[in-house]
Structure prediction request, 463 residues.
Amino acid sequence: MAINKDYDVVVIGGGCAGIASAVAAAKNGAKTLLVEGGPFLGGDLISGLPIDGCMNARGEWIVDGGVVRELFDACDRRGGYIGPITDYRALWIVCIDPIAMQFAIVDTVAKYPIDVLLYSFADDVKMENGMIKSVSVVNKLGRTDYTAKIFIDCTGDGDIAIKAGAPFEQGGETPEDLQPVSIVYRMENVDTEKLLTFVKEHPENVSLGESPWIVEGSTQQELADLLYLQGQPKVFFTGDRPLLAKAIADGIVSNTSMLAITPNSTARRAVSINSTRISVDAIKTNKLSQAIVPLFSQVDQGVRFLKERVPGFEHANFAGVSPRIGIRETRRIMGEYVLTTEDVLEAKKRSDGIAKGGHEYDIHGKNKEHIRLQLKDGGSYDIPLGVLIPRNTQNLLMAGRNLSAVRGAHSTARVMGTCMAMGHAAGSAASMCTKEGILPREVDIDALRTLLLNQGAVLNGTH
Prediction:
């Protein structure tokens, strides 16, 4: 594939937000380049994690249609779509097979005129009168400048926005006060019946019934019975409940707030495990690199705990780890609008919304620290385009984890479903800019909303 040097839209970062941005831009007629530093597209989409944020606590779809639905349909065609499930706790999630998703991403991107550069790092920008004229990309071909009318920063860390002069915030009380990084691992040949029977007989070990919109007056035992009847291995052990607390006390498992089990393949009887955590500033590459040793040690601990102490895992096989460390929090780029804690907790709706979020307020801390709050009425909040327009820039949009938000709001909007909804909006807005010869701040919001709605985005009609 020949890569040009001049594009309508250049998207930097090939995770879930970058894929959604690139597909949306190309689908709407923009000549698009997608630049990714790693060997694969997908980011956390191929980690084994379920997709949070596509549904609110009531089980209403709030991110559907557009790029999200294309990816889910492509997974389904490969037998890798489990779909929406709940553990009767606080969330509905969408479960997929990460192996099928790797192919689904390639299938979807290949449908559109998108040039892709892997193993390529965008390390500088050239500015002129507040406009990004080009992005400098480094790979084994050397250094190449790529020009575009509109650039979209989907790096997660806001690398391009910062180089273009946008302000940012980081952390909580101090810049080093960041949510821990994690690496997801997988187990296969899990006896789901035995696992869920154990939960049914010992519901005191798992978290259940946090959201009134899921509980609906049910007891813990009744919720455990419902989990058993659902028949999917979605189990959330917490560090303050007997089974996991004893394992921590015995030194089998490192101090953690949770060990979350989610299904990823019915055919392989496979699950993904989210339990590892290391507090590190992921912007500091040397520190992030050093985290791999303790993270892998925690994976070993988790596998041992599951096989020795959790019924259903006695004959399970370790099946691998995510191809990347998962990063919850680094920089938050300040945009034309800053999403607030009140916006998310009050499930605020707005006439200029271009995406929805519905994940819980969710700040992971050190060891067992974990702050989780539910959104009003089990609903969702609307995200305006201003959240995706970095200050002090002219022709730059952003989508994904580096969105403009205070820390609490960021903790709900950083999840994959919401990031893909933002990417769909950013890519569509970028295509409008290239067609109409305008800048992101000049986009007609009503026209953008109409475009998104016509492509299946959910912008209205939910709690």
User: Anything to note?
Assistant: The chain has two domains: 6-79+96-171+331-454, 185-321. The two ends are 46 Å apart (CA to CA). The mean pLDDT is 96.
